UniProtKB/TrEMBL annotation:
Domain HTH araC/xylS-type, chain residue ranges per copy: 237-335
Protein name: Transcriptional regulator GlxA family with amidase domain
Protein's organism: Promicromonospora iranensis
Keywords: DNA-binding, Transcription, Transcription regulation
Classification of source organism: Bacteria, Bacillati, Actinomycetota, Actinomycetes, Micrococcales
Keyword presence, Transcription: yes
InterPro entries: Class_I_gatase-like, DJ-1/PfpI, Homeodomain-like_sf, HTH_AraC, HTH_AraC-typ_CS, INH-QAR
Domain of life from the UniProt record: Bacteria
PROSITE patterns in UniProt: HTH_ARAC_FAMILY_1, HTH_ARAC_FAMILY_2
Region listing for Disordered, in residue ranges: 1-20
Annotated Pfam families: DJ-1_PfpI, HTH_18
Length: 340
């Protein structure tokens, strides 16, 4: 399970005459060196069949060219100012540990606001970790799904109540705006973008060269939720983890509310407050995500996948996958099935 709002584009080979996709990594003082390295490594490793680079990655900073300190004892000399985002196809905003008004008040600094203003219409905007605070402060996440580091979710919700926050996922994909959870989940998101742009084979090659899995297996929602503080509290996180481990079962709203020791009405209200979704919508999304994993990583027939995901029949599986992803399960498997 990787995305709360998955987008599945058609895999495509590199066009011999097309220039590389330009990625601008917008860093601020207090940036995390590891997060700066993620887009450079993942996008910078992607090559077409003729070994031509598929991406051009540049680093820029809102304050203009110069030395930018990190959150450790190193600094980097950045050659580009905010003008670099103007011709970028994708802008990546990593986290910064010099929190300031973005994190503390949900307000952009004048320099950062100017940098966001320069991003051209139609460009793809991506955050890593608490970089989502900057996207939210710019108004880019209002009414959209998003995620961020699990430890900051309560604070994020207080600052940005209009954002549909999903702390249980590793990343969200809402088409032109994407967010990732804490730190290393930026790798998952950047690999997802390579797969989205150029198909599974190139993404797998990048993953092999980077020595990371091309797609994290198993219950990614449960993996993240183990660390959400409210799991042992009065919220619905523990029930979400419980349900995600029982997708093949006929889970009902009554059963989920009973597990949470709440009335159906209270459970439904709290569930929506915490996830931005109804329990039914959330459960269907988990089942579709599990189906994606099985379609990509197994040769199981469709009726068995349907049973394992709780859809019951192959016809039901087809209807839900087509509705969520825009393609049939067969077409999805044809594009993204991974060869062992």
């Amino acid at each position: 399970m990787t995305s709360s709002s998955p987008a599945v584009p058609q895999a495509a080979a590199s066009d011999r005459g097309s220039p590389p996709h330009r990625v601008a990594v917008l860093i601020r003082p207090g940036f995390i060196p590891f997060e700066l390295g993620i887009p450079h490594r993942i996008f910078g490793t992607a090559r077409d069949a003729a070994l031509r680079p598929l991406y051009e990655v540049v680093t820029c900073t809102p304050g203009g060219p110069g030395l930018v300190p990190s959150d450790s004892d190193v600094a980097v000399h950045v050659a580009h100012g905010p003008e670099a985002v103007e011709d970028a196809d994708t802008v990546v905003v990593p986290a910064s540990h010099e929190y300031g008004p973005v994190y503390e008040e949900g307000r952009l600094t004048p320099e950062l606001a100017e940098a966001f203003r320069r991003i051209r219409p139609g460009a793809r905007i991506v955050s890593i970790c608490t970089g989502a605070f900057a996207l939210a402060a710019a108004g880019l996440l209002d009414g959209r799904p998003a995620t961020t580091h699990w430890a900051t979710t309560d604070h994020f919700r207080r600052l940005f109540p209009r954002v549909h926050l999903h702390p249980e996922v590793l990343f969200t994909d809402d088409g032109d705006v994407l967010t990732s959870a804490g730190v290393a989940s930026g790798i998952d998101l950047c690999l997802h973008l390579v797969r989205r742009d150029h198909g599974a084979a190139i993404a797998q090659d990048v993953a092999r060269r980077t020595v990371v899995p091309p797609h994290r297996e198993g219950g990614q929602a449960q993996y993240v939720e183990r660390y959400v503080p409210e799991r042992d509290g009065p919220g619905t996180a523990a029930t979400r983890a419980w349900a995600a481990e029982r997708l093949a079962e006929p889970l009902t709203l009554v059963a989920m509310a009973r597990h949470a020791a709440m009335s159906v009405r209270t459970f439904t209200r709290r569930f929506r407050d915490e996830t931005g979704e109804s329990p039914g919508t959330w459960l269907t999304r988990q089942r579709v995500e599990h189906a994606r994993t099985l379609l990509e990583s197994t040769d199981l027939p469709m009726d068995q996948i349907a049973q394992k995901c709780g859809f019951g029949t192959a016809q039901s599986l087809r209807a839900h996958v087509q509705s969520a992803l825009g393609v049939t399960p067969t077409a999805y498997r044809r594009t993204f099935h991974r060869v062992a």
